[in-house]
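Board notes (copied after class):
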Amino acid sequence: MVSKCYTVAFKGVHAIPVMVEVHFLPGLPKFTIVGLANKAVSESRDRIRACFHAIGLDMPLKNVVVNLMPADMQKEGSHYDLPIALGIFAAMDIIDSTELENYIALGELGLDGNVIHTTGVLSAALHAFEQSKKFICPYNNKSEATWVGELSILPLKNIVELIQHFNGKAIVAQPEPEKPRHINKSHKYDMRDVKGQSAAKRALEIAAAGKHNVLMIGPPGTGKSMLAKRITSILPSLAPKEALETTMIYSIAGMLDKYGLVSDVPFREPHHSSSLVALVGGGQKTKPGEISLAHNGVLFLDELPEFSRMAIESLRQPIESGEIIVARAENHVTYPSKFQLVAAMNPCRCGYFGMPKKECHRAPKCAGDYQNKISGPILDRFDIFIYMSNVKIKDLDDKKEESSQKIKERVLNAYYRQKDRGVMNSELDGEKLRNTVVLNDELKDFFMEACEKLDISARRYNRILRVARTIADLDAKEMIEKKHLLEAMSLRMYGVSNVI
């Protein structure tokens, strides 16, 4: 008799159904796994043998053949241990094979019979819910699985619990959803910690309100990193759908803690020495990269020109489309990558261009060479440029600065206005942009003339309009006024001559 049970493979953040068939053939004792199984799956044989021995069972003295269907799809990961073991139990009549077919299972097995924490549980649980099946997972992943909703979950600490549950000797209880805990710690930062830099704070408030991309330029010690780390403190919280999407990515990456849901706005800050694969994803197991881990949150690139050119240029597509396609010879995987890009850089390599007492003898050529490491197409994708100078010592006194909570209230008001329209300002394009951003004839003529004089590209033109719409939303205005447009244009100017 062929026993069957179900598990999943992962393609990006999506779960793909996999059937596990187990059959005992006559002949010498042997354990064979077929169906394009990689090294981790093939090693299941030894883990399962040790697991059987630990719970006092002997492997059948037969030719055990395990088939993973579809056979032409690559299988990788240790989460196939548990479904293969279940298939063998069913073939040995230890558990009811008919009942087993109502479940989707995944989990790694320890040599002592324990069921170990694995990755991708949330995506697998969602698939089980969509297929109207029950779900078996490791006990340490139970919180992650409970976020799916009305799903029958069987969380296991060890394999003995499963046998007893199926035989009615000790029923495993349905887990209760746990209260979400914070994973990201950025909420501990507050804007009141940043002294001075009122213009930069204003620009960052506009960026947060419309989810606009920002590039901060200034000498060392001006507070660029301080401001960047505090942007999540003024951003709207994740909506339930966004939290679920983000959690799926962290689940696939194996970066969830025992509490499950990612409840904070993600903030990722990869080092400038990060490789292209670390940034966009991929590698041997095609894992999500930093730009996907920043989905629905912030990607902060400090010292932007120090990143490799290939890494920086790889941001072009995801910034526009909100997803990244990792293409390999045997596999094409798409990960969501809808992030707000915040970057910081010095005006030149020494960092002191525009400061006569400190700048090097190569100024201004050194500043031009350094800033030209960032290509025009990448610069075009920033909505806002913030130029920062050193804070004066007298501004470091005990003067009270505005708190993140107060700034967030204004940001939320603008955010809700955008939600009422059905789209964030940073995502406005085409007909939506034309219908949302309406200029009167006088303002339109003024803007067109300015664009011609400044030789502004079509992409920059659209981005200025988006920022102007956000500024108007912060002012609770239905129509864009000239002051909104002028402020948006001032935030879009870039070049060596702007650095002070």
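Comment from the instructor: The chain has a mean pLDDT of 89. Residues 416 and 473 are 9 Å apart (CA to CA).
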